Amino acid sequence: MINAYSDLIFMKYITIGKTGVYSSIMALGAMTFGETNSWKLGGLNQEIVTKMVKKAIDYGINLFDTADVYDYGESEKTLGIALKGYRDKVLIATKVRGQMSNSINDVGLSRYHIKLSIKESLRRLDTSWVDIYQLHGWDSHVPLNETIETMQDLVEDGLVNYPGVSNLSAWQIATINARCEERGYSRYETAQMNYSLLNRDIEHEVIPYLNYSGMTLMAWSPLHGGILTGKYGKDGKAGRGTRMGDRGYFFPFFDQEKGYVIVDTVKEVAEEQGVKPSQIALAWLIARKLIIIIGARTMEQFEENLASLDIQLTREQIKKLDEISSYKEMYPNWMIRRQNSSDRDFHII
Ligand SMILES: NC(=O)c1ccc[n+]([C@@H]2O[C@H](COP(=O)([O-])OP(=O)(O)OC[C@H]3O[C@@H](n4cnc5c(N)ncnc54)[C@H](OP(=O)(O)O)[C@@H]3O)[C@@H](O)[C@H]2O)c1
């Protein structure tokens, strides 16, 4: 019984980057919102979106993540309607970069497109500002200065509180922040990246940079699109009415051979704890200092995922999950670790 957890769930909050604003450690992702269901990700209608958003707020979630491209604007629209009356109590994060129409300039991070996109996002969300406005990826066709100058204008015009990034490499994020610092621009405070037991790649470069710079990680697809629920068979087949079944392919990509061993381990830990595999996968992330963006197609999934806040993994269980999902440490990381872990220990008391 999911509701048996309800009274026990206790939301925690962390500050966003080096700002003074607090976000719940769990955010609700709106990628499944929008009845048109253009991306075959859920197609949630207004009624269920409103119910889900209201429940999220009741449980202390104050950050909602969407993007212009999610269901081509329908996600922002339904989220905006669901947040009516709550705008002053929540944080809205949305994104820009994706292609919104066939027009050659309706894509990317040019001044033209960013200015057009924020106007459209604000209209759809029915708000006068966005709390976190994220570059949805790198745009190699546009000079970086054009992008950061435009983002700064949005901050100065009061349309955006904090700039953020998504799907960028560490050197790209570091370059953006270095240029912003030189020019006295607002820092980029958040990095939204794919992070789950099935993909720990960002531990090589991105996470060390985020820790160094004090940015906050927002983990997208924490269940790796549903694979970490354990509902998909090793034959790679997926039934209708599931994300992978409806779309015909697995996304985010993952190493299937290693991946199913990880899923089996998640299932073992779930059995030990008497909970669902999905809840173990989420609890593993929650134990890290980040914001986890959950996604759901049904209220039942949403409630199950919320309840993962209440799970305490033992040290042994965390170690088991860490080890099975670990990756090969890359050079120069192992050299940096070696040089910095021991060479002065002898002298420091
Ligand atoms: N920045 C980016 O590029 C980017 C990319 C992707 C996502 N995101 C953000 O991250 C958010 C979360 O991503 P996501 O939706 O991919 O998260 P996810 O948690 O990895 O996958 C969610 C999907 O898994 C299935 N699921 C979830 N909970 C379940 C449960 N308890 N039992 C069984 N199935 C369950 C549902 O799909 P089915 O029922 O349909 O199988 C659900 O739609 C998005 O809403 C978006 O805000 C950002």
Overview of the structural elements:
The model is unreliable at 1-6 (pLDDT under 50). The chain contains twelve helices and ten strands. The strands form two sheets. The protein has an eight-stranded parallel β-barrel with strand order 3-4-5-6-7-8-9-10, surrounded by five helices. It has a two-stranded antiparallel ribbon with strand order 1-2. β6, α4 and β7 (160-166) form a beta-alpha-beta unit. The chain is an alpha/beta fold. α2 crosses α3 and α5 packs parallel to α6. It has one domain (13-342): TIM Barrel (Alpha-Beta Barrel), CATH 3.20.20.100. NADP nicotinamide-adenine-dinucleotide phosphate is lined by residues 29-32, 42, 65, 166-167, 192, 220-226, 229, 231, 242-243, 278, 293-297, 301, 304-305.
How would you describe the oligomerization state of the chains in this entry? Answer: single chain
User: Spans with pLDDT under 50 lasting ≥5 residues?
Assistant: 1-6
- Gap between N and C termini: 52 Å
Report the radius of gyration as a whole number of Å: 20 Å
Percentage of residues assigned to helices: 25-40%
Decide which structural class fits the backbone: alpha/beta
Query: What is the CATH fold-level name?
Result: TIM Barrel
Number of strands: 10
Query: Which superfamily, in CATH terms, is the homologous superfamily?
Result: NADP-dependent oxidoreductase domain
- What amount of the residues lies in strands? 5-15%
Largest sheet: 8 strands, parallel, barrel
Number of helices: 12
CATH C-level category: Alpha Beta
Number of structurally distinct domains: 1
Q: Label the overall shape.
A: globular
CATH architecture: Alpha-Beta Barrel
SSE ordering: EEEHEHEHEHEHEHEHHHEHHH
